[in-house]
Amino acid sequence: MHKPLEILNLSKNYGAFKAVDDVSFALEEGEIFGLLGPNGAGKTTLISCVVTLENMTSGKVKVFGDSILDKPKETKSKIGYVPQEVVNHGYFTVEEILKFYSGFFGILRNQEKIDYLLNRLSLDVHRNKKVKQLSGGMKRRLMIAKALVHDPKILLLDEPTAGVDIELRNSLWDFVVELKKSGTTVLLTTHYLEEAEELCDRIGVIHNGSLRKVGRTSDLIQDLTLRKLEMQLSGKNKEFNSKYLVSQCEESIELEFPSNLEIGEVVKDLDLDWSTVKDIHLKEGSLEEAFLRILNENNANNSTNNSVERDC
Amino acid sequence: MKTQNIYFNPFLMLLWKEIRRYCKVLVQTVVTPGINSSLYLIIFGVSLGGSIDVGLEVPYLAFLISGLIMMSCLNNSFANTSSSIISGKFSGDLEDLKVVPLSKQQIIWAMCLGGITRGLVVASVALTVGQIFYYSQYGEFMEIKSPFSLAFFLLGGALAYAKLGMFVAFLAKTFDQMSAVSAFVLQPLAFLGGVFFSLNNLSPFWQKISLFNPVFYLINGVRHSILGVSDVPPLSAAVVTVLSLVIFHVLVLVTLSRSEFKRW
Ligand SMILES: Nc1ncnc2c1ncn2[C@@H]1O[C@H](COP(=O)(O)OP(=O)(O)OP(=O)(O)O)[C@@H](O)[C@H]1O
Ligand SMILES: [Mg+2]
Q1: Which of A97, A122, A179, B143 is deepest in the core (most CB within 10 A)?
Q2: Closest atom, ligand 1, to C-alpha of A46
Q3: Which residues contact A216 (CB under 8 A, 6 or more apart)?
Q4: Are the C-beta atoms of B80 and B114 separated by less than 8 Å?
């Protein structure tokens, strides 16, 4: 079986500047893959190369085994693309735009699907409006509808939720999950890391044009972050001593430890009188921490030891 | 059951979209050029025309009508493809063409065919308006000597200008560049292309210059088809038409491969 999307040693230079630098990864069928990176990392450039908006400098992109340059029509018809910037459409109405777009993908009669998408994305009442008469969030949804008229096997979402309110973001993500369940493979970029953590099966982190890390979301968090254990204690306590201890205050202590350790192991050294424990809080590491860690790894001598004394 | 044909339908839809685009603003795209033609006919054809002799043994009004038909045909074919691309660059929906399964050749032909339809519609408007003026002056309609050759020159000219419009619009980096090409190249070529005067009205120096103006041949091709007389033989007009078609096609193809579909 061919992978839905394979990116092989893709580079894109603007003059001497390497916007994308030798990036390789592949999407697995039916997964949601999050491409994360700070502003200017090269996410949009990478996606633009995949949809041939930009000509790559070198490398190869394959869609279900076919190179996008050798079989442009076959490969393009399997991709739905939502650009980062909203596109205007002059005189045409929402419904007309979707009809044109269906036709561009070879489907001349597509009313049923168009109605479904308009309905699903709550654009039904706006079907006769022009793009400039829509609000920002509606425009976003139109972009998404446009990308879905031909039931693409692969959906590329470049920051689909930028400038979208929280409620709409959630409903968009619900929709993305629904698409995933129906077999669509999704590649998305976003700056909302919490949402990416919840949504994405796998994450790729790109920085200054090169791919720094690819892995399952849960694995990245496990490998790159520490779990935090906070305990509220009563009464006066001795000075605890443990290599996992990061802070101790009058009535509380905080421990940090890698996720592969069992809690018993961690608290063993404390020699704790459990009757003094009032409450326990366990905080898991987040994708955000893992993300920042990946970005900082390359800033050579940046100490990752963040055991700064904390205020009580 | 919906059928999907990614090889031909995208082309059909782009052609349809190009046509729908100018139909949305019919006043601007068809009515205005019609009014322009009428104004030229009133000013030059009817009021000044009596005192102009083009030396071709046809009334000046008939001479002018044949020129105006071709000029409006060329202008509107050019305007359609170029404004479609320029507005697409501005709003960003030109990018769409690159993302969907359309080949370069399909993009060229769909847009050009769209441009041709507008050129022909406006040419028909000019012809109709011209016939009305002619009838009001001479009590009969102007006869068209050779409809087939007229179709050839109108279609050929429209297609060549549609391609030229695509070429210029794809190259243009700003609105200004686009209008500069119109104002400094196309308008002069058209107005000096023999719409309003014959070689017989010019000094020998300007006669020589005019023979280097391709538009002069395109317009005279149409004139010969309608009136049976013209400043240059129809064969050389046909050669220039075919040459422009080939040259502009190559130019468009090259720019399309190189240039950006990305928005401004
Ligand atoms: N046409 C261009 N010419 C020159 N440099 C460019 C061009 N397009 C993008 N770049 C540069 O390439 C780099 C990557 O840009 P890109 O848009 O891919 O970033 P991004 O990861 O999508 O960022 P964001 O999160 O802000 O959308 C940036 O430094 C940008 O300045
Ligand atoms: Mg971007």
Answers
A1: A97
A2: 18
A3: A201, A202, A203
A4: yes
Is the predicted pLDDT of residue A301 greater than 50, yes or no?
no
Q: For the sheet containing A5-14, what is the strand order?
A: A17-27, A5-14, A58-63, A66-67
Is residue A308's pLDDT more than 60? no
Q: Do A74 and A167 fall within a single domain?
A: yes
Q: Is residue B174 part of a domain?
A: yes
- Residue A302 confidence (pLDDT): 44
A39-66: average pLDDT: 96
Choose which residue among A13, A18, A44, A190 to substitute to test ligand 1 binding: the one with the highest number of ligand atoms within 8 A of its C-beta.
A44
- Looking from the CA of B253 toward its CB, the CA atoms found within 13 Å total 10
CATH number (domain holding residue A202): 3.40.50.300
In short, whether A161's Cβ falls inside 6 Å of ligand 1 is no
pLDDT at position B9 is 96
Predicted confidence at residue A307, as pLDDT, reads: 46
Q: With contacts defined as CB-CB under 8 Å, which chain B residues touch A100?
A: 13, 16-17
Q: Find the domain containing A212 and state its range.
A: 1-78+152-225
In a domain, B41, yes or no: yes
Identify the nearest ligand to the CA of A37 by its number: 1
Side chain identity, residue B212 = F
**pLDDT for the residue A185:** 98
Q: What is the rounded distance in angstroms from the CA atom of residue A203 to the CA atom of residue A213?
A: 8
- d(CA A303, CA B2) in angstroms, rounded, equals 59
A58-63/A5-14 β-pairing: antiparallel
State the best of B7, B11, B12, B13 to mutate against chain A, taking most chain A CBs within 10 Å: B13
Q: Which of A150, A102, A157 is nearest to A141 (CA)?
A: A157
Task: Count how many domains chain B has.
Answer: 1
Give the contacts of A275 (CB within 8 A, at least 6 positions apart): none
Q: Which atom of ligand 1 is nearest to the CA of A209?
A: 14
